[in-house]
Amino acid sequence: MKNERLKNALTIIISFVIGGVFTFAIVDGGNLLGGTNETTTTTMGTTCSAKNCTKVVVDESGVSDSVQKVYDGVVLVQTYKDDQLTSTGTGFAYKKDDKYTYLMTNQHVVAGGDQVKIITSKDEEIKATILGGDTYIDIAVLRIDKNDSLTPLPLGNSENAKLGDFVFTIGSPLGYEYRGSITTGHLSGKDRMISVSTSNSSSTDWVMKVLQTDAAINPGNSGGPLFNINGEVIGINSMKLVETEVEGMGFAIPIEYAVSHIETLEKGKEIEWPMLGVTMINTTDLIALYREGITISKDMDQGVVVAGVEENSGADKAGLKKGDVITKIAGNKVKNSAYLRYELYFHKPGETIEVEYIRDGKEKTIEITLSKLETNK
Question: Could you confirm whether 347 is annotated as catalytic?
Answer without folding.
Answer: no
